[in-house]
TrEMBL record:
<feature type="transmembrane region" description="Helical">
    <location>
        <begin position="149"/>
        <end position="172"/>
    </location>
</feature>
<feature type="transmembrane region" description="Helical">
    <location>
        <begin position="96"/>
        <end position="113"/>
    </location>
</feature>
<feature type="transmembrane region" description="Helical">
    <location>
        <begin position="62"/>
        <end position="84"/>
    </location>
</feature>
<keyword id="KW-1133">Transmembrane helix</keyword>
<protein>
    <recommendedName>
        <fullName>Nickel/cobalt efflux system</fullName>
    </recommendedName>
</protein>
<feature type="transmembrane region" description="Helical">
    <location>
        <begin position="268"/>
        <end position="288"/>
    </location>
</feature>
<feature type="transmembrane region" description="Helical">
    <location>
        <begin position="227"/>
        <end position="248"/>
    </location>
</feature>
<dbReference type="InterPro" id="IPR036259">
    <property type="entry name" value="MFS_trans_sf"/>
</dbReference>
<keyword id="KW-0472">Membrane</keyword>
<feature type="transmembrane region" description="Helical">
    <location>
        <begin position="184"/>
        <end position="206"/>
    </location>
</feature>
<keyword id="KW-0812">Transmembrane</keyword>
Length: 304
């Protein structure tokens, strides 16, 4: 009962809160935002964390992504205090944000997989490309970890229930514009805390199987590249559909849970499941099989 009261308090902040209470609630909202499946955070953190294949690398991915996200959230709550965030109430920015996020994801994925920022796999689609597994290893690039900051800045323009609370409920209660960024900063730090934790967990998925460090690096980079590349196309396609048919973004099936990001199966939730759950798992399995297949072939050649 007490837990439900706390959740109710955080999601529906009462009047007459002190500055400290506003900041604490903002931080808790950030924790909840980072802990629940969110299409603006999980796919990016998963991709880069897995690509870094280490606890430290995964934590760094979560930190850098959330750093960009925090900067944007600080700007957002400042706009909320000044009454300039009304654009989020008037227009649905999900479509454009998905498109831009998707493009940046695909560019990063292309760099990891092919060493260049734009690559269309036409040859693969036509079945005319033949891959040498060992050549592919040399072709793979290390995930550009600093791009997570850019991802965070862009993803921060996505708007949901948590952002609504800090922007339209908490930020206007701050005493002056100098304090206005603080709810956004605390929200970002809460999200950052959870993203660092998840980043470490995602990165350690690579250590489940007994592989050499080179194998883990290959599986991690290949998985990251595929998720970013094909996940990016998925994001952009969904964004385009929302721009063309805005009603799609209103589709939702209630789960009966009162916590945002868990309260409904909607477009955002399905994006997380598709990119992290389907693309992520499939890419990891495919990359692992490629490693074992290559090892088996090399073993046979050595014996021969």
């Amino acid at each position: 009962m007490m837990e439900m009261n706390l959740i109710e308090l955080v999601l529906n902040p009462p009047q007459n809160l002190t500055i400290t209470e506003i900041l604490v609630i903002s931080f808790i909202l950030g924790l909840m935002h980072g802990a629940t499946p969110d299409e603006h955070t999980w796919p990016i953190t998963f991709s880069y964390a897995v690509g870094k294949y280490s606890t430290k690398g995964g934590m760094k991915a979560g930190f850098l992504f959330s750093l960009g996200f925090t900067v944007q959230r600080a700007l957002l709550t400042t706009l909320g205090f000044l009454g300039l965030a009304e654009i989020y109430n008037r227009y649905n920015l999900d479509g454009p944000v998905y498109i831009i996020v998707g493009i940046v994801m695909a560019i990063a994925g292309s760099y990891i997989l092919k060493g260049r920022y734009i690559h269309l796999p036409i040859d693969k689609l036509l079945g005319s490309e033949h891959h040498d597994p060992m050549a592919e290893r040399n072709e793979l690039k290390d995930p550009p970890i600093k791009m997570t900051i850019v991802h965070g800045l862009i993803a921060g323009f996505g708007f949901g229930a948590y952002a609504s609370i800090i922007t339209f409920v908490l930020a206007p209660r701050m005493p002056s514009v100098l304090f206005a960024p603080l709810p956004g900063v605390m929200f970002g730090l809460g999200t950052m805390t959870m993203q660092i934790i998840f980043g470490a967990l995602f990165a350690n998925l690579m250590k489940v199987k007994k592989l050499t460090e080179d194998d883990i690096k290959y599986v991690g980079s290949k998985t990251a590249g595929r998720v970013l590349y094909y996940g990016g196309f998925t994001f952009s396609l969904v964004g385009l559909l929302i721009v063309l048919f805005p009603s799609i973004d209103n589709w939702a099936v209630s789960t009966g849970i009162s916590i945002p990001n868990l309260n409904a199966i909607d477009v955002g939730f399905l994006l997380v499941i598709t990119v992290v759950g389907v693309l992520g798992v499939m890419s990891m399995v495919m990359s692992y099989r490629e490693v074992t297949k290559t090892k088996g072939r090399l073993s046979k050649e050595t014996k021969a």
